[in-house]
Amino acid sequence: MVRLFTILCVVGTLAACGGPRGYNPSGGLGRGAVLFATGPINSACLQSGRKQASVARCGCIQAVADRELSSSDQRRGARVFGDPHTLQEARQSDSKSDNDFWAVWKAYGQTASTLCSAT
After folding, report:
1. Which helix (H) or strand (E) covers residue 110, if one does?
2. Residues near 60 by Cβ (< 8 Å), separated by ≥ 6?
3. Neighbours of 46 (CB within 10 A)
4. Which listed residue, of 7, 64, 90, 115, carries a Cα 20 to 30 Å from 55's Cα?
C-alpha cells in the first residue's frame, strides 16, 4: 500500500512539472511552441543581408506569413526584401490590387513584429 502511494505521488509530481503552455518566441524547453517555417519569405529574409536576419527570425516571419498571407502575397512580399521601394510604390498606388496588398502586408508586418520580436 505504501509502495502504491509513493508511486502515485511520484507520478503526480512529474505531471505537475509540465510547465506553461502556449506561444513562446524564445523557445525555452517546456515553454510552448516556437514558430518556424520555410518558404519564399524565409528565403528572401535570409538572403536580404540585413543584420537582424537570423534563421530563427526568418523562420518565424515565414510561419506568420503562412497564417496571414496568401501564396501570391507571399511571393510578392518576398520581392519586397530585394527591393523595398516596391512596397512604397504599392502604398502610393491608385491600383486596387496594390492597395489590397499594402493593407494585408501592413497587418502581416505588425503581427510578425509582435510574434517574432524575441527571436
Report:
1. helix 96-116
2. 25, 34, 35, 36, 112, 115, 116, 119
3. 18
4. 90
DSSP result, 28-55: -TTS-------SHHHHHHHHT--TT--H
pTM of the predicted model as reported, rounded to 2 decimal places:
0.71
* Contact between 86 and 80 (Cβ < 8 Å): yes
Q: What share of the chain is helix, strand, coil (3-state, %, to 5)?
A: 65, 0, 35
By the 8 A CB rule, do 66 and 39 touch? yes
Alpha-carbon distance of 105 to 17, in angstroms, equals 40
* pLDDT (tens digit per residue) in 56-87: 999 999 999 999 999 999 999 999 988 999 99
Residue 107 to residue 91: CA distance in whole angstroms = 13
Contact 105, 72 (CB under 8 A): no
The whole-angstrom separation of Cα 37 and Cα 55 is: 10
